[in-house]
Amino acid sequence: MHIHIMYLLFVILIPKMLSLQMIVTYGKPTNFTDATSFSESSWESCVEECYLQNTCVLAYSPTSPLNCQLYPVNRIFSVQKLYSTDLVAFKVTNSTATCPTGDNPPTFGNLTNYGSISTDLVDYTYSVSYGSDDTWSLSYNLTGRVCADGWSMFVRPTTNWCLQVFGSPSVSYTQADAIHNCTNIGTVLSGLETLDERDFVAAGALTLLGAGYPEFAAVWVSGMRKPECYSDGWENLAECAGTNMEQFTYTDTYMANYAGYTWDPNTPDRNSTGVWQNCIQMWIRIESVSPDFPYDTNPNGNSDDATCNVADSDDFSLRGFACGKLPEIPADA
Ligand SMILES: *[C@@H]1O[C@H](CO)[C@@H](O)[C@H](O)[C@H]1NC(C)=O
Ligand SMILES: *[C@@H]1O[C@H](CO)[C@@H](O)[C@H](O)[C@H]1NC(C)=O
Ligand SMILES: *[C@@H]1O[C@H](CO)[C@@H](O)[C@H](O)[C@H]1NC(C)=O
Ligand SMILES: *[C@@H]1O[C@H](CO)[C@@H](O)[C@H](O)[C@H]1NC(C)=O
Ligand SMILES: *[C@@H]1O[C@H](CO)[C@@H](O)[C@H](O)[C@H]1NC(C)=O
Ligand SMILES: *[C@@H]1O[C@H](CO)[C@@H](O)[C@H](O)[C@H]1NC(C)=O
């Protein structure tokens, strides 16, 4: 005997005029990479919490004891159908205000159902389909947001990110100049989430500076050392040691990783030049201009710490910077 527990929680309108419902049935998540526990007194309030949380696509709990788990978009991929006990609630679209009925919710008649999630950072559409192995599969498409002309899109764990490099062989910038220039156009001095982002900034800077650029050129990227990591006693703080990225604060607050910061050997070297180098620069190098560098260890795009307010010195010049911003919903969407 199959008993389908179903109810329409409530219906709201979200952008693009799709309404979302929570459809409850028996099942258990079997493939997921993230879930958060939510302390709730009833299954109904667990379902309601998922409905209210912008990024939640599925709620789950064993019947007894209650243990509400909420699954975010793009982190839950399959749910095993059950015939009793554990409950799941799928957030899916339905164009009518009435509670749908039919065999095998939320994929009534084993059709595909859909959902969409829109946050400040990202938009997804997703589908829920039912397979012969008694399993619902969820698949996701990132949609909607674009980078304006001149900006290039990169995928980050929590959002996509738009990057553009600015600079010239004849101008120098302090880090404050770079931050100011990015802020002026509604962006931030960007960090480097991935090697792809690093390589994009390094290649873009080389293009702007030209093949015969002045030697020892660099561009600014996000990162300023925390005061406790250069005040007396910093040597005793683990977060300040070596290449630990926790020693810096970032204008780019959308990084989950710092994999694009590949340090030159023996850097960051802090105050080795006699003054504190509390900001982060990216070296721009091609062999014809900088033949003294071993390119296997000092490639174009490596990071180094640099003196924040010195744009120009005998040793280097900061000739540009990378700005970053969130993708935008197109005006005609
Ligand atoms: C879980 O789902 C993801 C995304 O569809 C898939 O790449 C992965 O192979 C699945 N893992 C298992 C163990 O089925
Ligand atoms: C939406 O609700 C209607 C009315 O109950 C139902 O016939 C239809 O199958 C539902 N569609 C989806 C995709 O859930
Ligand atoms: C949906 O799939 C289930 C399980 O495979 C099956 O028992 C049922 O007959 C199917 N329903 C339809 C309408 O195809
Ligand atoms: C995702 O995009 C692909 C290619 O455009 C499409 O075939 C698929 O149906 C989409 N899936 C969802 C869940 O929107
Ligand atoms: C940076 O800002 C200054 C002052 O507003 C402006 O003159 C300059 O053109 C900007 N540079 C870039 C590359 O945006
Ligand atoms: C560099 O930092 C070390 C450790 O804080 C300190 O002992 C030394 O005086 C500093 N040197 C300069 C030139 O600031």
Describe the overall structure.
- Residues 4-138 form the PAN-3 domain.
- This is PAN-3 domain-containing protein.
- Residues 1-19 form the signal peptide.
- Keywords: Signal.
- The protein has 333 residues and is mainly beta.
- It has two domains: 5-142, Hepatocyte Growth Factor (3-Layer(bba) Sandwich); 152-325, Mannose-Binding Protein A, subunit A (Mannose-Binding Protein A, Chain A).
- The protein is built from three helices and 18 strands.
- It has helices spanning 43-52, 175-184, 195-209, and strands spanning 12-14, 18-32, 36-38, 56-61, 68-72, 76-81, 87-93, 113-118, 123-130, 135-143, 152-155, 160-167, 188-189, 217-225, 248-249, 279-284, 303-306, 317-325.
- The strands form two sheets. Strands 1, 2, 3, 4, 5, 6, 7, 8, 9 and 10 form a ten-stranded antiparallel sheet that branches. Strands 11, 12, 13, 14, 15, 16, 17 and 18 form an eight-stranded mixed sheet that branches.
- The longest helix is centred in the middle third of the chain and has 15 residues, at 195-209.
- The protein is elongated and about 75 Å long.
- The site of one 2-acetamido-2-deoxy-beta-D-glucopyranose has 8 residues, from loops.
- Residues 103-104, 109-110, 132 line the site of one 2-acetamido-2-deoxy-beta-D-glucopyranose.
